[in-house]
Amino acid sequence: MNNAVAGFSKLSKNEKINWIADTYFSTPDEALKIIRNYWNSDHKLQQLHDEFIENTITNLYIPLGIAPNFLINGKYKTIPMAIEESSVVAAASKAAKYWATRGGFKATVLNTEKIGQVHFIFNGNAEKLQSFFDQIKPKFFSDTQSITKNMQQRGGGILDIQLKDKRNLLENYFQLHATFETKDSMGANFINSCLEQFATTLKEEAHNSDLLAKNETLQVVMSILSNYVPNCVVRAEVSCPVEDLAEKHITNPQEFAERFVQAVQIAEVEPFRATTHNKGIMNGVDAVILATGNDFRAVEAGIHAYASRNGQYTSLSHAKIEDGVFTFWLEIPLALGTVGGLTSLHPLVKLCLEILQKPSAKELMEIVAVAGLAQNFAALRSLTTNGIQAGHMKMHLNNIINQFEANDEERHLIKSHFKINAISHSAVVEFIDNLRK
User: How many Cα neighbours within 13 Å face the side chain of 18?
Assistant: First the structure.
């Protein structure tokens, strides 16, 4: 079966979905019904969503939840979270409530430097190239003045540009390594525009330079920002006397604290555990990033690179007991924005930023890091006490019930039964089968 199609992007929206339905479904009308059911009834709002990306056929909804009671640097925050996974929002909310009575979360932005690079191949004398770079460096700044003017007025701009010799990695490979401050914007378009001008300046100046010989060739390969931002880092932490950790499920706080620290230490040395450990952190991080219209793929890539910066993938969070005080913290790189992009276009993103009281980029970094730490604390608390599955399966029960399209009476009986019985997919299926017999 040949499913190739010519000129798909030029088809109308209805032509696209008709082709999809006719090509891939034995019941095209049913497929069309599902696709159209997820269109927004507000035509203008739907058109806005259609134009976010290319070849749009419908909307894929992700639930937007709310986690209240986050005490961050002395102020209460209600955090919006967009995620499809059961128990994440509940766990974050529970951790927020727990720490609100123990001093809350402390968060600090350590740095906000972002990075971009012009990658090029130079076949010639490296010392002469360095002299050439030193000579033309001011021109990189002057040639980008029209691009950086508005950013400079907001206190941002190009921080520095360095020539880096990377020939130990790849033959004749060099780069311009530039650092930027982009204030409240994520700054991707700004950085990439600057880099492309750097590349143009580099090529033009090399062509006209008396410092470089005619046989010394310079070829720009590409100009692009980096999503690895090890100097754009935020720290979030919680701490309290060990005895204050006590609660309903923590009757021996010293034992709990010691086991918690051991669990973190395992993630620090064991990459298999660290991967799942950090995935839990990203449950909180990604959910807030998605809700606020930021790029969670860029953040994921940068954070996981950061977790590997010392040569082995390791835990992003850390814990200790010192002088009777329990401390749990993380430091993660986050390049975020609260202006530009979806933050000014998507109505729900704008609403989420309103809920967060219109944070600056720095404040959003703190909120996101706290959400990640809260999620990690909730998971580790469960793992080191009564296990993670009880709570997770309780939240997952609704998904199983909906999968089998239970009616209201069945739903009531199922939930009543599993209030006192262990939940598993097979146990729920068996109970539903017996009900329906």
Answer: 5
Beta-bridge partner residues of 329 = 237, 318
Q: What angle do CA 61, 63, 68 make, to 5 degrees?
A: 155
- Which positions are catalytic? 85, 279, 295, 392
CA–CA separation, 192 vs 318, rounded Å?
35
Would you give per-residue pLDDT tens digits along the chain (437 residues)? 678 899 999 999 999 999 999 999 999 999 999 999 999 999 999 999 999 999 999 999 999 999 999 999 999 999 999 999 999 999 999 999 999 999 999 999 999 999 999 999 999 999 999 999 999 999 999 999 999 999 999 999 999 999 999 999 999 999 999 999 999 999 999 999 999 999 999 999 999 999 999 899 999 999 999 999 999 999 999 999 999 999 988 999 999 999 999 999 999 999 999 999 999 999 999 999 999 999 999 999 999 999 999 999 999 999 999 999 999 999 999 999 999 888 889 999 999 999 999 999 999 999 999 999 999 999 999 999 875 555 556 666 777 888 877 888 778 788 777 776 777 778 788 878 887 87
Question: Could you write out the three-class secondary structure of the chain?
Answer: CCCCCCCHHHCCHHHHHHHHHHHHCCCHHHHHHHHHHCCCCCHHHHHHHHCCCCCCCCCCCCCEEEEEEEEECCEEEEEEEECCCCCHHHHHHHHHHHHHCCCCEEEEECCCCEEEEEEEEEECCHHHHHHHHHHHHHHHHHHCHHHHHHHHHCCCEEEEEEEEECCCCCCCEEEEEEEEECCCECCHHHHHHHHHHHHHHHHHHHHHCCCCCCCCEEEEEEEEEECCCCCCEEEEEEEEEHHHHCECCECCHHHHHHHHHHHHHHHHHCHHHHHHHHHHHHHHHHHHHHHCCCCHHHHHHHHHHHHCCCCCCCCCEEEEEECCEEEEEEEEECCCCCECHHHHCCHHHHHHHHHCCCCCHHHHHHHHHHHHHHHHHHHHHHHCCCCCHHHHHHHHHHHHHHHCCCCHHHHHHHHHHCCCCCCCHHHHHHHHHHHHC
- CA-wise closest residue to 369 among 158, 101, 107: 107
Residue 345: name the closest of 136, 150, 53 by CA.
53
Question: Could you tell me the pTM of the whole model?
Answer: 0.88
- Give the tokens for residue 288: 């807030």
